[in-house]
Amino acid sequence: MDTMALRCKSCGAPLPSDATGELLTCQHCGTVQRLVDARAFLDQISLQINSFLRQALPVGLDVGAGGGAIDPIARHNLFVQGVRPSLETEYRELKFRCFDLLSHGQIALPFTVASGLNVQNDPKDAFIFQAKVRSVSSLAVDDESRKLMAEVDGVATTYAHLLTNAGFLTQPRPERYPFIARNCKDAAETLKNVPQLAALQSRLQGLSHLGEALDQVTQGHPRDSRPAIQAALADLTKAHDLAQSNFDLSLMITGIEEELALTRASSYLADILSTSQGGSSDRSLLAVQALLKQLTVLLPNTSPTWAVNMGKASRIETVLWMTGEMRKAQMGQGSVKSVRAPGSLVVPFWVVQVPYSFQTGALWKARGVEVAETMLVAATFALDPGALSLSDPSRVVTDVFGAREQVGWRDRMAGRETAISGGGLVTNVVAGAAPGPLSSLPAVPPLTTSDEASLLVQQYLAWCRRRDREIDQKLKLSSPRVVDLVYIPSTPEASPSAVIPWMGPLSPRSVGEPQALASFAFS
Predict the structure, then answer these.
(1) Which residues of 196-211 are buried (b: 16+ CB within 10 A; e: fewer)?
(2) Distance (Å) of CA 356 to CA 223, 409, 418, 466
(3) What is the pTM of this model?
(4) How far apart are CA 241 and CA 339, in angstroms?
Protein backbone atom coordinates (compact mmCIF):
# COMPACT_ATOMS: atom_id res chain seq x y z
CA MET A 1 0.00 0.00 0.00
CA ASP A 2 1.02 3.65 -0.45
CA THR A 3 0.96 4.02 3.33
CA MET A 4 4.00 1.73 3.53
CA ALA A 5 6.17 4.18 1.58
CA LEU A 6 8.57 6.23 3.65
CA ARG A 7 7.24 9.69 4.44
CA CYS A 8 9.00 13.01 4.98
CA LYS A 9 9.09 13.85 8.69
CA SER A 10 8.66 17.55 7.86
CA CYS A 11 5.79 17.74 5.37
CA GLY A 12 4.48 14.16 5.30
CA ALA A 13 4.89 13.66 1.54
CA PRO A 14 6.11 10.31 0.18
CA LEU A 15 9.88 10.09 -0.15
CA PRO A 16 11.50 8.71 -3.33
CA SER A 17 11.06 4.93 -3.44
CA ASP A 18 14.52 4.43 -4.93
CA ALA A 19 16.33 6.53 -2.30
CA THR A 20 19.43 4.92 -0.81
CA GLY A 21 21.89 5.87 1.90
CA GLU A 22 21.45 7.21 5.40
CA LEU A 23 20.26 10.68 4.31
CA LEU A 24 17.10 11.32 2.31
CA THR A 25 15.97 14.55 0.66
CA CYS A 26 12.27 15.34 0.28
CA GLN A 27 11.44 16.44 -3.26
CA HIS A 28 8.40 18.37 -2.01
CA CYS A 29 9.80 20.52 0.79
CA GLY A 30 13.58 20.07 0.46
CA THR A 31 14.10 18.73 3.98
CA VAL A 32 17.18 16.54 4.40
CA GLN A 33 16.57 13.83 7.00
CA ARG A 34 18.04 10.62 8.31
CA LEU A 35 16.57 7.34 7.12
CA VAL A 36 15.91 6.31 10.71
CA ASP A 37 13.85 9.47 11.32
CA ALA A 38 11.75 8.85 8.19
CA ARG A 39 11.07 5.32 9.37
CA ALA A 40 10.10 6.56 12.83
CA PHE A 41 7.62 9.00 11.29
CA LEU A 42 6.19 6.20 9.13
CA ASP A 43 5.59 4.22 12.33
CA GLN A 44 3.61 7.16 13.72
CA ILE A 45 1.46 7.28 10.58
CA SER A 46 0.89 3.54 10.72
CA LEU A 47 -0.37 3.82 14.29
CA GLN A 48 -2.86 6.50 13.27
CA ILE A 49 -4.05 4.47 10.28
CA ASN A 50 -4.50 1.35 12.41
CA SER A 51 -6.47 3.36 14.94
CA PHE A 52 -8.71 4.66 12.16
CA LEU A 53 -9.23 1.14 10.76
CA ARG A 54 -10.18 -0.23 14.18
CA GLN A 55 -12.88 2.40 14.50
CA ALA A 56 -14.22 2.10 10.95
CA LEU A 57 -14.07 -1.67 10.38
CA PRO A 58 -14.93 -4.87 12.25
CA VAL A 59 -12.18 -6.24 14.49
CA GLY A 60 -9.69 -8.48 12.70
CA LEU A 61 -10.74 -7.51 9.15
CA ASP A 62 -7.77 -7.16 6.79
CA VAL A 63 -8.23 -4.85 3.80
CA GLY A 64 -4.67 -5.29 2.61
CA ALA A 65 -3.74 -6.73 -0.76
CA GLY A 66 -6.58 -4.81 -2.36
CA GLY A 67 -9.25 -6.38 -0.20
CA GLY A 68 -9.84 -8.98 -2.89
CA ALA A 69 -10.61 -11.75 -0.40
CA ILE A 70 -13.74 -9.92 0.73
CA ASP A 71 -16.99 -10.35 -1.19
CA PRO A 72 -17.84 -7.17 -3.24
CA ILE A 73 -21.24 -6.84 -1.55
CA ALA A 74 -19.58 -7.11 1.85
CA ARG A 75 -17.00 -4.54 0.83
CA HIS A 76 -19.73 -2.17 -0.30
CA ASN A 77 -21.60 -2.57 3.00
CA LEU A 78 -18.40 -1.99 4.96
CA PHE A 79 -17.74 1.16 3.00
CA VAL A 80 -21.26 2.58 3.38
CA GLN A 81 -21.72 1.67 7.04
CA GLY A 82 -18.23 2.12 8.48
CA VAL A 83 -15.75 3.89 6.21
CA ARG A 84 -17.81 6.63 4.63
CA PRO A 85 -19.25 8.05 7.91
CA SER A 86 -15.77 8.01 9.47
CA LEU A 87 -14.20 9.88 6.55
CA GLU A 88 -16.95 12.35 5.64
CA THR A 89 -16.83 14.47 8.80
CA GLU A 90 -13.08 14.97 8.57
CA TYR A 91 -13.27 15.46 4.80
CA ARG A 92 -15.89 18.23 5.02
CA GLU A 93 -13.65 20.23 7.35
CA LEU A 94 -10.54 19.57 5.24
CA LYS A 95 -12.31 20.52 2.01
CA PHE A 96 -13.62 23.76 3.52
CA ARG A 97 -10.14 24.76 4.65
CA CYS A 98 -8.61 23.75 1.32
CA PHE A 99 -10.97 25.92 -0.69
CA ASP A 100 -10.66 28.76 1.79
CA LEU A 101 -6.93 28.67 1.02
CA LEU A 102 -7.69 28.46 -2.72
CA SER A 103 -9.72 31.68 -2.55
CA HIS A 104 -6.31 33.42 -2.41
CA GLY A 105 -3.53 33.46 -4.97
CA GLN A 106 -1.05 30.59 -4.60
CA ILE A 107 2.06 32.21 -6.10
CA ALA A 108 4.38 35.12 -5.37
CA LEU A 109 6.80 36.98 -7.62
CA PRO A 110 10.55 36.81 -6.96
CA PHE A 111 11.75 38.79 -3.92
CA THR A 112 8.17 39.05 -2.61
CA VAL A 113 5.93 37.01 -0.35
CA ALA A 114 2.26 36.12 -0.59
CA SER A 115 -0.12 37.88 1.78
CA GLY A 116 -3.48 36.88 3.20
CA LEU A 117 -2.96 33.11 3.10
CA ASN A 118 -5.10 31.47 5.77
CA VAL A 119 -3.05 28.42 6.79
CA GLN A 120 -4.92 26.35 9.37
CA ASN A 121 -3.19 22.97 9.14
CA ASP A 122 0.18 21.31 8.93
CA PRO A 123 0.76 19.49 5.61
CA LYS A 124 1.49 16.33 7.61
CA ASP A 125 -2.11 16.33 8.85
CA ALA A 126 -3.45 16.38 5.30
CA PHE A 127 -1.03 13.67 4.13
CA ILE A 128 -2.01 11.46 7.07
CA PHE A 129 -5.66 11.87 6.11
CA GLN A 130 -4.72 10.98 2.52
CA ALA A 131 -3.02 7.82 3.83
CA LYS A 132 -6.20 6.86 5.70
CA VAL A 133 -8.22 7.30 2.51
CA ARG A 134 -5.88 5.12 0.49
CA SER A 135 -5.81 2.43 3.18
CA VAL A 136 -9.53 1.73 2.58
CA SER A 137 -9.79 2.59 -1.11
CA SER A 138 -10.24 -1.10 -2.01
CA LEU A 139 -13.63 -1.06 -0.28
CA ALA A 140 -15.07 1.39 -2.82
CA VAL A 141 -16.56 -1.00 -5.40
CA ASP A 142 -19.40 0.92 -7.06
CA ASP A 143 -19.04 3.97 -9.32
CA GLU A 144 -20.44 6.44 -6.78
CA SER A 145 -18.06 5.27 -4.05
CA ARG A 146 -15.06 5.30 -6.38
CA LYS A 147 -15.97 8.82 -7.52
CA LEU A 148 -16.19 9.99 -3.92
CA MET A 149 -12.88 8.38 -2.94
CA ALA A 150 -11.13 9.86 -5.99
CA GLU A 151 -12.37 13.31 -4.98
CA VAL A 152 -11.41 12.88 -1.32
CA ASP A 153 -7.96 11.60 -2.24
CA GLY A 154 -7.43 14.42 -4.76
CA VAL A 155 -8.53 17.20 -2.42
CA ALA A 156 -6.52 15.81 0.51
CA THR A 157 -3.39 15.53 -1.63
CA THR A 158 -3.94 18.99 -3.12
CA TYR A 159 -4.42 20.55 0.31
CA ALA A 160 -1.27 18.89 1.62
CA HIS A 161 0.82 20.21 -1.27
CA LEU A 162 -0.72 23.70 -1.01
CA LEU A 163 0.13 23.81 2.70
CA THR A 164 3.72 22.88 1.87
CA ASN A 165 3.78 25.62 -0.79
CA ALA A 166 2.40 28.14 1.71
CA GLY A 167 5.62 27.76 3.67
CA PHE A 168 7.61 28.68 0.56
CA LEU A 169 5.34 31.61 -0.32
CA THR A 170 6.10 33.34 2.97
CA GLN A 171 9.86 33.15 2.40
CA PRO A 172 11.33 35.00 -0.62
CA ARG A 173 13.94 32.33 -1.36
CA PRO A 174 14.89 31.94 -5.05
CA GLU A 175 15.12 28.14 -4.77
CA ARG A 176 11.45 27.79 -3.81
CA TYR A 177 10.00 27.69 -7.33
CA PRO A 178 11.00 24.13 -8.33
CA PHE A 179 9.29 22.84 -5.18
CA ILE A 180 6.16 24.92 -5.82
CA ALA A 181 6.03 23.69 -9.42
CA ARG A 182 6.48 20.03 -8.44
CA ASN A 183 3.88 20.17 -5.68
CA CYS A 184 1.28 21.76 -7.98
CA LYS A 185 2.06 19.23 -10.73
CA ASP A 186 1.71 16.26 -8.36
CA ALA A 187 -1.54 17.66 -6.96
CA ALA A 188 -2.93 18.12 -10.48
CA GLU A 189 -2.10 14.50 -11.28
CA THR A 190 -4.35 13.25 -8.45
CA LEU A 191 -7.28 15.18 -9.94
CA LYS A 192 -7.06 13.73 -13.46
CA ASN A 193 -9.97 11.38 -12.78
CA VAL A 194 -12.10 13.89 -10.87
CA PRO A 195 -14.06 15.72 -13.57
CA GLN A 196 -16.04 17.80 -11.09
CA LEU A 197 -12.75 19.44 -10.06
CA ALA A 198 -11.47 20.12 -13.58
CA ALA A 199 -11.16 23.83 -12.81
CA LEU A 200 -8.89 23.09 -9.88
CA GLN A 201 -6.79 20.66 -11.91
CA SER A 202 -6.30 23.24 -14.65
CA ARG A 203 -5.41 25.87 -12.05
CA LEU A 204 -2.78 23.63 -10.49
CA GLN A 205 -1.30 22.86 -13.91
CA GLY A 206 -1.07 26.58 -14.60
CA LEU A 207 0.63 27.22 -11.26
CA SER A 208 3.09 24.43 -12.00
CA HIS A 209 4.01 26.09 -15.32
CA LEU A 210 4.30 29.47 -13.62
CA GLY A 211 6.59 28.02 -10.95
CA GLU A 212 8.81 26.61 -13.71
CA ALA A 213 8.85 29.99 -15.47
CA LEU A 214 9.76 31.95 -12.34
CA ASP A 215 12.54 29.47 -11.60
CA GLN A 216 14.00 30.22 -15.03
CA VAL A 217 13.70 33.96 -14.39
CA THR A 218 15.46 33.77 -11.03
CA GLN A 219 18.17 31.52 -12.50
CA GLY A 220 19.03 34.17 -15.09
CA HIS A 221 17.21 32.70 -18.09
CA PRO A 222 14.25 35.05 -18.59
CA ARG A 223 13.96 34.39 -22.34
CA ASP A 224 13.56 30.66 -21.70
CA SER A 225 10.61 31.33 -19.38
CA ARG A 226 8.23 32.56 -22.08
CA PRO A 227 6.79 29.18 -23.21
CA ALA A 228 6.02 28.22 -19.60
CA ILE A 229 4.41 31.63 -18.98
CA GLN A 230 2.18 31.18 -22.02
CA ALA A 231 1.21 27.70 -20.84
CA ALA A 232 0.39 29.10 -17.41
CA LEU A 233 -1.80 31.81 -18.94
CA ALA A 234 -3.69 29.23 -21.00
CA ASP A 235 -4.28 26.87 -18.06
CA LEU A 236 -5.27 29.61 -15.62
CA THR A 237 -7.62 31.20 -18.17
CA LYS A 238 -9.26 27.80 -18.69
CA ALA A 239 -9.52 27.36 -14.91
CA HIS A 240 -11.17 30.78 -14.61
CA ASP A 241 -13.74 29.94 -17.27
CA LEU A 242 -14.52 26.55 -15.71
CA ALA A 243 -14.84 28.03 -12.22
CA GLN A 244 -17.28 30.65 -13.47
CA SER A 245 -19.60 27.90 -14.69
CA ASN A 246 -19.30 25.82 -11.50
CA PHE A 247 -21.05 27.31 -8.47
CA ASP A 248 -19.15 25.07 -6.01
CA LEU A 249 -15.79 26.27 -7.35
CA SER A 250 -16.69 29.92 -7.92
CA LEU A 251 -14.99 30.97 -4.68
CA MET A 252 -11.66 30.25 -6.45
CA ILE A 253 -12.25 33.01 -9.00
CA THR A 254 -10.65 35.80 -6.97
CA GLY A 255 -7.54 33.70 -6.36
CA ILE A 256 -7.29 32.71 -10.03
CA GLU A 257 -7.63 36.34 -11.13
CA GLU A 258 -4.78 37.26 -8.80
CA GLU A 259 -2.67 34.47 -10.30
CA LEU A 260 -3.49 35.60 -13.84
CA ALA A 261 -2.36 39.13 -12.96
CA LEU A 262 0.89 37.80 -11.52
CA THR A 263 1.40 35.60 -14.58
CA ARG A 264 1.12 38.64 -16.85
CA ALA A 265 3.42 40.49 -14.42
CA SER A 266 5.89 37.61 -14.77
CA SER A 267 5.82 38.08 -18.53
CA TYR A 268 6.67 41.76 -18.14
CA LEU A 269 9.37 40.87 -15.62
CA ALA A 270 10.91 38.43 -18.09
CA ASP A 271 10.81 41.10 -20.81
CA ILE A 272 12.54 43.65 -18.55
CA LEU A 273 15.35 41.26 -17.72
CA SER A 274 15.59 39.95 -21.30
CA THR A 275 15.97 43.51 -22.58
CA SER A 276 18.91 43.97 -20.22
CA GLN A 277 20.71 40.74 -21.12
CA GLY A 278 24.06 41.38 -22.76
CA GLY A 279 24.16 44.82 -21.13
CA SER A 280 23.59 45.85 -17.53
CA SER A 281 21.74 42.68 -16.59
CA ASP A 282 23.14 42.47 -13.05
CA ARG A 283 22.24 46.09 -12.35
CA SER A 284 18.75 45.55 -13.81
CA LEU A 285 18.19 42.49 -11.63
CA LEU A 286 19.11 44.53 -8.55
CA ALA A 287 16.78 47.33 -9.68
CA VAL A 288 13.93 44.86 -10.20
CA GLN A 289 14.60 43.32 -6.80
CA ALA A 290 14.50 46.75 -5.13
CA LEU A 291 11.35 47.71 -7.04
CA LEU A 292 9.44 44.57 -6.08
CA LYS A 293 10.58 44.85 -2.47
CA GLN A 294 9.49 48.48 -2.42
CA LEU A 295 6.04 47.56 -3.65
CA THR A 296 5.81 45.06 -0.79
CA VAL A 297 7.17 47.47 1.83
CA LEU A 298 4.48 50.01 0.97
CA LEU A 299 1.65 47.65 1.89
CA PRO A 300 1.69 47.80 5.71
CA ASN A 301 2.59 51.50 5.82
CA THR A 302 -0.30 53.04 3.96
CA SER A 303 -3.29 55.05 5.12
CA PRO A 304 -6.79 53.60 4.58
CA THR A 305 -7.06 55.83 1.51
CA TRP A 306 -4.45 53.77 -0.31
CA ALA A 307 -4.71 50.38 1.39
CA VAL A 308 -7.52 49.10 -0.85
CA ASN A 309 -5.40 49.29 -4.01
CA MET A 310 -1.86 48.85 -2.69
CA GLY A 311 -2.19 45.10 -2.10
CA LYS A 312 -3.68 44.12 -5.44
CA ALA A 313 -1.74 41.89 -7.82
CA SER A 314 -3.17 43.96 -10.69
CA ARG A 315 -1.25 46.95 -9.32
CA ILE A 316 2.06 45.07 -9.47
CA GLU A 317 1.14 43.96 -12.98
CA THR A 318 0.56 47.57 -14.05
CA VAL A 319 3.80 48.82 -12.49
CA LEU A 320 5.87 46.09 -14.17
CA TRP A 321 4.19 46.77 -17.53
CA MET A 322 5.12 50.46 -17.26
CA THR A 323 8.63 49.49 -16.17
CA GLY A 324 8.95 47.32 -19.28
CA GLU A 325 7.84 50.18 -21.55
CA MET A 326 10.34 52.52 -19.90
CA ARG A 327 13.13 49.96 -20.19
CA LYS A 328 12.45 49.45 -23.91
CA ALA A 329 12.68 53.22 -24.43
CA GLN A 330 16.01 53.28 -22.57
CA MET A 331 17.38 50.54 -24.82
CA GLY A 332 16.13 52.22 -28.01
CA GLN A 333 13.54 49.49 -28.61
CA GLY A 334 10.45 51.58 -27.83
CA SER A 335 9.33 55.08 -26.99
CA VAL A 336 7.82 57.06 -24.14
CA LYS A 337 7.03 60.76 -23.81
CA SER A 338 9.87 62.69 -22.22
CA VAL A 339 11.21 66.21 -21.73
CA ARG A 340 14.79 67.17 -22.51
CA ALA A 341 16.16 69.13 -19.55
CA PRO A 342 19.01 69.09 -17.00
CA GLY A 343 18.81 66.73 -14.02
CA SER A 344 20.39 63.74 -12.33
CA LEU A 345 17.53 61.24 -12.59
CA VAL A 346 14.62 60.84 -15.02
CA VAL A 347 11.36 60.62 -13.07
CA PRO A 348 7.88 59.82 -14.44
CA PHE A 349 5.02 62.28 -13.90
CA TRP A 350 1.33 61.78 -14.41
CA VAL A 351 -0.32 64.51 -16.47
CA VAL A 352 -3.67 65.35 -14.88
CA GLN A 353 -6.34 67.65 -16.30
CA VAL A 354 -8.26 69.51 -13.60
CA PRO A 355 -11.30 71.31 -15.03
CA TYR A 356 -12.91 73.71 -12.58
CA SER A 357 -15.10 76.78 -12.44
CA PHE A 358 -15.24 79.69 -10.04
CA GLN A 359 -17.31 82.80 -9.39
CA THR A 360 -15.79 86.26 -9.84
CA GLY A 361 -17.12 89.81 -9.79
CA ALA A 362 -19.79 91.40 -7.63
CA LEU A 363 -23.37 92.50 -8.19
CA TRP A 364 -24.09 92.99 -11.91
CA LYS A 365 -20.46 92.15 -12.76
CA ALA A 366 -20.68 88.66 -11.22
CA ARG A 367 -19.92 85.85 -13.65
CA GLY A 368 -18.79 82.24 -13.71
CA VAL A 369 -15.44 81.31 -15.25
CA GLU A 370 -14.48 77.85 -16.51
CA VAL A 371 -10.82 76.85 -16.49
CA ALA A 372 -9.03 73.73 -17.84
CA GLU A 373 -5.95 73.42 -15.64
CA THR A 374 -3.11 70.93 -16.09
CA MET A 375 -1.05 69.48 -13.25
CA LEU A 376 1.90 67.13 -12.92
CA VAL A 377 1.97 64.45 -10.22
CA ALA A 378 5.18 62.60 -9.43
CA ALA A 379 4.43 58.97 -10.29
CA THR A 380 6.79 58.05 -7.44
CA PHE A 381 4.79 59.94 -4.82
CA ALA A 382 4.32 56.75 -2.79
CA LEU A 383 7.91 57.23 -1.58
CA ASP A 384 7.12 60.59 0.00
CA PRO A 385 5.77 60.26 3.57
CA GLY A 386 3.87 63.54 3.39
CA ALA A 387 2.06 62.56 0.22
CA LEU A 388 1.31 59.01 1.30
CA SER A 389 -0.07 60.16 4.66
CA LEU A 390 -1.90 63.05 2.89
CA SER A 391 -0.53 65.53 5.46
CA ASP A 392 0.90 67.60 2.59
CA PRO A 393 0.09 66.28 -0.92
CA SER A 394 1.34 69.56 -2.46
CA ARG A 395 4.92 68.31 -2.03
CA VAL A 396 4.71 65.93 -5.00
CA VAL A 397 2.64 67.96 -7.46
CA THR A 398 2.93 71.16 -9.40
CA ASP A 399 1.15 73.31 -6.81
CA VAL A 400 -0.93 75.28 -9.31
CA PHE A 401 -3.17 76.85 -6.68
CA GLY A 402 -0.23 77.81 -4.48
CA ALA A 403 1.57 79.42 -7.45
CA ARG A 404 -1.39 81.47 -8.71
CA GLU A 405 -1.03 85.20 -9.36
CA GLN A 406 -2.69 87.39 -6.79
CA VAL A 407 -5.39 89.64 -8.29
CA GLY A 408 -6.22 93.01 -6.77
CA TRP A 409 -9.49 93.74 -5.01
CA ARG A 410 -10.76 96.03 -7.77
CA ASP A 411 -10.14 93.41 -10.47
CA ARG A 412 -11.95 90.78 -8.42
CA MET A 413 -14.93 93.06 -7.87
CA ALA A 414 -14.99 93.93 -11.58
CA GLY A 415 -14.93 90.28 -12.60
CA ARG A 416 -11.59 90.46 -14.41
CA GLU A 417 -10.16 87.25 -12.89
CA THR A 418 -9.45 84.56 -15.49
CA ALA A 419 -8.24 81.84 -13.13
CA ILE A 420 -7.54 81.13 -9.47
CA SER A 421 -4.68 78.80 -10.37
CA GLY A 422 -1.38 79.37 -12.13
CA GLY A 423 -0.29 76.34 -14.07
CA GLY A 424 0.41 77.84 -17.48
CA LEU A 425 4.03 76.64 -17.50
CA VAL A 426 2.87 73.07 -16.91
CA THR A 427 0.81 73.19 -20.10
CA ASN A 428 3.90 74.31 -22.02
CA VAL A 429 6.02 71.53 -20.49
CA VAL A 430 3.47 68.88 -21.42
CA ALA A 431 3.15 70.26 -24.92
CA GLY A 432 6.93 70.05 -25.32
CA ALA A 433 7.11 66.39 -24.31
CA ALA A 434 7.91 64.25 -27.33
CA PRO A 435 7.70 60.47 -27.82
CA GLY A 436 10.98 58.70 -28.36
CA PRO A 437 13.84 56.93 -26.57
CA LEU A 438 14.89 58.11 -23.12
CA SER A 439 18.07 60.05 -22.47
CA SER A 440 21.19 58.39 -21.11
CA LEU A 441 20.37 59.49 -17.57
CA PRO A 442 19.29 56.80 -15.08
CA ALA A 443 15.51 56.53 -14.93
CA VAL A 444 12.98 55.21 -12.43
CA PRO A 445 9.66 53.61 -13.40
CA PRO A 446 6.26 54.73 -12.08
CA LEU A 447 5.48 53.40 -8.63
CA THR A 448 1.81 54.38 -8.74
CA THR A 449 -1.13 53.92 -11.10
CA SER A 450 -3.21 56.52 -12.91
CA ASP A 451 -6.13 55.88 -10.53
CA GLU A 452 -3.91 56.63 -7.56
CA ALA A 453 -2.69 59.83 -9.23
CA SER A 454 -6.27 60.96 -9.73
CA LEU A 455 -7.03 60.21 -6.09
CA LEU A 456 -3.97 62.17 -4.95
CA VAL A 457 -5.10 65.22 -6.94
CA GLN A 458 -8.51 65.04 -5.29
CA GLN A 459 -6.78 64.96 -1.91
CA TYR A 460 -4.58 67.88 -2.97
CA LEU A 461 -7.64 69.95 -3.91
CA ALA A 462 -9.25 69.18 -0.55
CA TRP A 463 -5.98 70.21 1.12
CA CYS A 464 -6.02 73.52 -0.84
CA ARG A 465 -9.55 74.21 0.35
CA ARG A 466 -8.53 73.72 3.96
CA ARG A 467 -5.47 75.90 3.55
CA ASP A 468 -7.03 78.82 1.63
CA ARG A 469 -10.45 80.18 2.57
CA GLU A 470 -10.76 82.12 -0.69
CA ILE A 471 -10.25 78.99 -2.79
CA ASP A 472 -12.72 77.10 -0.62
CA GLN A 473 -15.39 79.75 -1.22
CA LYS A 474 -14.86 80.14 -4.96
CA LEU A 475 -13.85 76.75 -6.30
CA LYS A 476 -16.29 74.44 -8.06
CA LEU A 477 -14.80 71.26 -9.44
CA SER A 478 -15.39 68.41 -11.81
CA SER A 479 -13.40 65.17 -11.61
CA PRO A 480 -9.63 65.23 -12.32
CA ARG A 481 -8.62 63.10 -15.29
CA VAL A 482 -5.21 61.50 -15.92
CA VAL A 483 -4.34 61.93 -19.59
CA ASP A 484 -0.67 60.98 -19.97
CA LEU A 485 2.64 59.94 -18.47
CA VAL A 486 5.73 62.04 -19.07
CA TYR A 487 9.36 61.43 -18.04
CA ILE A 488 11.17 64.56 -16.80
CA PRO A 489 14.78 64.90 -15.57
CA SER A 490 14.77 65.88 -11.90
CA THR A 491 17.12 66.32 -8.96
CA PRO A 492 15.60 64.31 -6.10
CA GLU A 493 18.53 65.19 -3.86
CA ALA A 494 17.34 68.83 -3.89
CA SER A 495 14.28 67.94 -1.78
CA PRO A 496 12.66 69.61 0.17
CA SER A 497 13.15 72.56 -2.18
CA ALA A 498 12.55 72.51 -5.95
CA VAL A 499 13.41 69.13 -7.54
CA ILE A 500 12.88 70.61 -11.04
CA PRO A 501 14.57 74.03 -10.58
CA TRP A 502 13.72 75.44 -14.01
CA MET A 503 10.00 75.16 -13.19
CA GLY A 504 10.40 77.78 -10.46
CA PRO A 505 7.56 77.96 -7.90
CA LEU A 506 5.65 75.25 -9.76
CA SER A 507 8.33 72.67 -9.17
CA PRO A 508 7.37 69.76 -6.91
CA ARG A 509 9.34 69.82 -3.68
CA SER A 510 9.77 66.05 -3.66
CA VAL A 511 9.55 63.01 -5.91
CA GLY A 512 10.22 60.58 -3.07
CA GLU A 513 13.08 59.56 -0.83
CA PRO A 514 16.27 59.88 -2.96
CA GLN A 515 18.00 56.76 -1.62
CA ALA A 516 14.94 54.59 -2.31
CA LEU A 517 14.65 56.01 -5.83
CA ALA A 518 18.32 55.31 -6.54
CA SER A 519 17.87 51.67 -5.51
CA PHE A 520 15.53 50.88 -8.42
CA ALA A 521 16.90 53.29 -11.01
CA PHE A 522 17.63 51.66 -14.37
CA SER A 523 20.55 52.85 -16.45
Answers:
(1) ebbbbbbbbbbbbbbb
(2) 49, 22, 12, 17
(3) 0.89
(4) 44
